[in-house]
Amino acid sequence: MVKKKLTGFIVLLFVIQCVFIGGTYFSSQSEQQRADAGREEPARTSAETKPYISAALPESSASEHTLLANQDTEILSSELDLEAEDSTTPALIPSSSAERLGNDVIYRVKRGDTLSRIWEKMGGEVRNAHLAAQAFREEGLSLASLRAGEDITLRLNETGNIAFVRKDLPEGRVLSLYLKDGRYDAEILDPEIITTRREVSGTIDHSLAAASLQQGVPYEVIDEFIDLFSGRVEFSRDTQRGDSFSVIFDERNAADGRALSPGDIHAASFMNRGEMMVAIRHTAKNGEVHYYDREGKPIGNHFLRYPVKFTRISSVFTKGRFHPVLKRWRPHNGVDFAAPTGTPVRSVADGVVVKSGYYGGNGNMVKIKHGDKYASAYVHLSRISKGVRQGARVSRGQVIGGVGSTGLATGPHLHYAFYVNGKYVDPMKIKLPRLPNKFEPIPAKLLKATLQRLEKQHQTVQLARQKEMASQHENA
Length: 476
What we know:
Shape: globular
CATH architecture of the largest domain: Roll
Radius of gyration: 37 Å
CATH class of the largest domain: Alpha Beta
Low-confidence stretches: 24-96
Number of domains: 3
CATH topology of the largest domain: Nuclear Transport Factor 2, Chain: A
Number of strands: 27
Largest sheet: 8 strands, antiparallel
């Protein structure tokens, strides 16, 4: 019995010894492996494993522009354009809004951008943005002239500050700002303007606008053309395929080739259903400018037909329609003009504002009284222009607000209503009051020569169309 206990005790001691020796061996091997690994690759410091953020970025932008580094790769934010090895690069440029052009950066202004926000995005000092704003004001420029979609040129110096700004202004002028001695010096260059008299004519297949654009007629000229004839033609309803148009206007370009806003229309004509209507410009001795018809009578209306320039009617005037928001049939007294949010809305005539503000389902609305008989209303506006308040006087063509979708509206559009003696009427069909015939008559020689010129243009385009149609018929 004693012998068996002694044998068991010896076996237990042997097992304990083996376990101790094995643990010591494997522990020493693990330490050796770690030591070897340490000689092959030094342990990284905490600074090397943290994200790298350039000092050229403002703190508010650091999370958007982060350079991550690890042992094998460097991951570069898709919004940046800088090399990982150069931590002193001053310009971190979001590719979605800017691109490099040599030493300059072309920045595309986004909706909601301000000078301060642009300076922040480009890594410049925000206080310099205030200096730039001051330079704008000193040159008589509003900061509202900074518009979404336009490109401005920026140049950054070695410290990351915006040292130069170039911005295009209306009429081909160019504003340049130079950072010098803690302020921006401003310079405005006026271009040399080259004016060319253009004669354009064409035939209509789908719409006047499409035909005019195809011939290179600027939007501004199309808008003025429509206003000249809108008292005699409702362009969304009366035009038909085969009608023709002709227009003589001043094309304006800067000497470097940049297109500028066009000049005046000198003469225009529209052949509708075989009848040619004309508008011929004449400046009276007292400096007043008027347009005259083919009989030499002054044309023009107290009212514009369209409260929005160059856009399409999305819903024709009806006495009833299914309301897309209320989901029920209700009267639809007016015309809807579809246009992007913010498109300028203009008063169709001189008058006095009788309503201006937010009116429930109408949203932002302006209503204008034009004398004792007529009134007009503009509904769902995104904004109402400054000064357009109850009791204010407005003039024909004055911008009173912008197209929007306030109130009960499914999308941006202008709802335009017209009243005669307090009753709704279709503003597209009503005969607009004409201006009084009290102007200096157009010289007979000018009238005759211009009429012959316009008639010849129509004959030319109509003949060309007849040849084209005959050729198509032969090939059919």
